[in-house]
Recover the amino acids of this structure.
């Protein structure tokens, strides 16, 4: 009796690691199978902290004309999103191309956006720490595509790491969606478009 | 019992030493980082590749220049800071292309990229024996003016190479001590001035 009990104890003791591992895996798969947690929804005027940027979306529209210095060719149209971008980091940077990612539009492959500053229009400017600027994101799509009634855009934020795993240098890593902006596609503000 | 206690203490001490060593190990980017050469305005700062002497700093609310015979105005939400530097190369041609305005809290403002095709905005390349004057334009926040420094180097992130860090301590002041800020800085008039 005593030996049998001892055997069970030994078996339990040796198997405890794998028991915990199996249990943990089961718990993770149960929670992972559920629907993803809902993303925070934002509307125009909301101020969104997204990693190294502070984004305040204002309005969106569809353009078939040159918009803030970005050329739209004949047979093309563009989804334009106007926002304030503030640099929250220590250094001037222009790494905002991956910050906003529009939801898929049927039949359209979205290219990278062209970002233009509204002040003295300029494409792809450096934005300096603590100096927010009004910019437009321009996604060029074929003219034949039907733009949706409203533009839905994911806000992708990166996380600061003081020491990265490869070089031991600080940097911004692990892009993740932190929010979703929905803006109705309305009218451009005065002076935004020029005949191209 | 005493022996056990001694072993435990030794173990703890070793752990503490190892922790301290782990925390204080210099990182790769610190080991291979820039070699600093500090200086002040009005005196030559000698780095490996070039000598730099900051002559003056000016501030303006907007810049004006002519491009394709058209007047171009560059406004800003902050201030334009214009740093005039006398540069001379030491042994070979060098492009002192990386300049940063670093504010008192450590915010780093890189050269403005909004002055395309402006006069005098060719890369600040210096040849040995031919000193020249270069002007650097920054867009900064008004609260980054006092206690700032200019960082100059050949590349943006110098590795095992010298970087000049020049304290910007002689700022233009009006007679009442307030910062002297021009309304407009004319870049065309500025390049006519020769060293």
């Amino acid at each position: 009796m005593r030996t049998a009990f001892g055997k069970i104890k030994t078996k339990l003791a040796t198997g405890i690691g794998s028991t915990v591992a199996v249990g943990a895996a089961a718990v993770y798969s149960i929670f992972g199978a559920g629907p993803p947690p809902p993303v925070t929804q934002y509307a125009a005027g909301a101020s969104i902290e997204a990693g190294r940027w502070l984004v305040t979306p204002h309005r969106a529209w569809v353009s078939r004309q040159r918009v803030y210095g970005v050329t739209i060719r004949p047979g093309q149209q563009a989804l334009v999103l106007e926002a304030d971008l503030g640099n929250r980091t220590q250094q001037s940077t222009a790494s905002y191309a991956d910050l906003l990612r529009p939801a898929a539009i049927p039949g359209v492959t979205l290219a990278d956006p062209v970002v233009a500053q509204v002040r003295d229009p300029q494409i792809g400017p450096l934005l300096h720490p603590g100096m927010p600027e009004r910019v437009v994101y321009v996604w060029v799509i074929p003219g034949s595509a039907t733009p949706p009634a409203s533009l839905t855009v994911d806000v992708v934020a990166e996380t600061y790491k003081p020491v990265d795993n490869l070089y031991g240098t600080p940097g911004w890593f692990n892009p993740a969606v932190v929010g979703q902006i929905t803006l109705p596609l309305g009218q451009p503000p005065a002076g935004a478009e020029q005949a191209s | 019992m005493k022996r056990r206690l001694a072993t435990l203490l030794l173990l703890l001490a070793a752990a503490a030493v190892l922790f301290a060593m782990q925390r204080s190990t210099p990182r790769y980017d610190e080991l291979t980082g820039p070699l600093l050469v500090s200086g002040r305005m009005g005196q030559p700062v000698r780095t490996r590749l070039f000598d730099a002497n900051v002559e003056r700093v000016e501030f303006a609310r907007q810049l004006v220049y002519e491009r394709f015979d058209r007047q171009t105005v560059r406004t800003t939400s902050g201030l334009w800071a214009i740093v005039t530097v006398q540069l001379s190369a030491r042994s070979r041609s060098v492009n002192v292309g990386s300049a940063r305005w670093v504010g008192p809290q450590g915010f780093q403002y890189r050269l403005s990229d909004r002055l395309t095709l402006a006069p005098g905005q060719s890369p600040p390349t210096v040849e040995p024996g031919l000193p020249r004057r270069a002007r650097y334009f920054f867009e900064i926040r008004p609260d980054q003016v006092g206690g700032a420094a200019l960082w100059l180097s050949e590349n943006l992130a110098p590795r095992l190479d010298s970087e000049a860090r020049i304290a910007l301590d002689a700022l233009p002041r009006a007679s009442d001590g307030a910062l002297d800020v021009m309304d407009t800085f004319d870049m065309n008039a500025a390049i006519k001035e020769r060293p």
